[in-house]
Amino acid sequence: GECDSVKGERKEFNDWTAKLVTKMALMPSASPLVLKLLANMKENTASSLIRTRNMLNSITVELFTTEEVQNAAAQLYMTKRRGSVAGRRRSTLDSASNGGVDEEDGQSQNKRLLQIVGNSDLRDSHNELLEGVVKSRDDIISNAIDGGGNETTASRKTSLVKIDMQSCGNPPYEPGDHIRVIPRNVISLEELQSFVSHLSSSRDTGNLTLDDHIYVSFDEDIPRSELAVSLPLLHGSLGQLFPLDYFFENQVALEAPISMQACLDLSGLASGAKDKAILKGIGYSKKEYENMSSLYGMKWIDVFKTFPSLSKRINLDFLLCNMKMNHPRSYSIASCKDIVGSELHMVVGRFIYSRGGSKIEVGVCSNFLTSVEPGDKICFKLDRVVSFHHPLDPSCPIIFICTGTGFAPIRGLLQKRMYLQSRGEKLGPAYLIFGSRSSSEGLFHDEIMDLQNQSIITKVYFCYSREKGMKREYTMDKLKSKSVGQILSPILEDPNTHIFICGSANMAEGCKDALIELSTQDCFDAITKDGRLHCDVFGALCSKKSNIKRHQSYRLTDLVDDELDDLADLPDLDFPELGKFRSAKFR
Fold it and tell me: In this structure, are strands 498-504 and 533-538 parallel, antiparallel, or unpaired?
């Protein structure tokens, strides 16, 4: 829910919920609670629309030229300086200024700008974050993937990014912690200027430029938390004065897709009949919207190229209410501070693909991080993840399991072991199971072998799922192999053993099942209960049976089908409505 709020997807979630509750209310013998919920949702939707309309009418967007802002900042500086000098010099400065710097000059517009400059933090919308400098970026993997006869082409790139944190106070961190990065849109200044020049402006000075400054205020007296959920981009821009280049490079998700609701709103702004018809059609039809997205990408940065009649028809107010905000992305830290000093390392993978058209798809933050150059600045925040820290007792046996860029936190933990060994600590055995697509895409192979030679790692097991001429082998297959099982089975029985897993959620669940087969369910439950199982996973979990005792999530149709199957097995009960539940329409 928090992630959806930051990304501005609350409306999509509310629409989905409304459709779900409506279908549930149409079921035979619907619960009175469901009917009541549906009535309340309709009432809340009506009041929410009125509330939203009032909120939009309360937005004030003010634009200032660079010269105006610089003059106001200079006047504010002189005013503060004059207030601090001795009284004998005050009269001299007053006469020299000719009355042009004080609010008593009667210039209301100058007063307003002076107030904005004095109360806002210029160009610092992320003042609660840290800012580091890129020391180096090493591309570990950079290759193209053949489409295999299909129209889809793709390429992969994995980079080791090193950040120097001396400029931000060299904050502490531990291997296993996360770094939240604020991405920047990787767009050329020419493309960005072209986008801004197509926006409408209420000024008489002509087109907007990237040097113009924007200040957003909100008159409605509502809780900031409500505004943050309803209009996250607007909320993140309130009370700050920054140039448009900073606004579009850092604040706005220009690479994000235009939502279906925004397409409907844009259809009312388009001046061309063709653009108006297309926008209205894709705004109502999900199938047409998906087809249009596949062909043209439907990204905000391309809105004026795709729909030319929208030029000079969209203003900043519209963008603040419809575009998404660049939200931070979390990455596992791939270094140990005791080894790298003031540096912080990240392992970032980027996947670029095309659906056959001219538009490519790429992750915003991964594209940004794999494109940075030495000297570039990165805004970030550090998050402690105590559950993935190295055991306090270095003599504990450890099993590391990871795939691809999931090696990042494992790399930091191995550096921690290197530091402990340098202090004379006795290290317990450590085993690494590392899965990759192929040996050519294996990460840090030489570094891992050096760690094994130094006895930081007892034994390394590599497995490849796309190696030419070899049978596909995944991490769970390697765990189930006889050679690995004979070594890890007694390790799992040790009451001090810790297990670290990093990768996709499905990989983690498969590895857990494999570890249970190597030991027993009771043994694995004890590892979990004692907090000796450490998981740092990402992605959704596919629906499948697992031996792990945990709270599970179900799709509604799966849950209904399972319960109906149980009811159908009871011979003494008659359910005449059972057929309706199984109908194709309900499915």
Answer: parallel
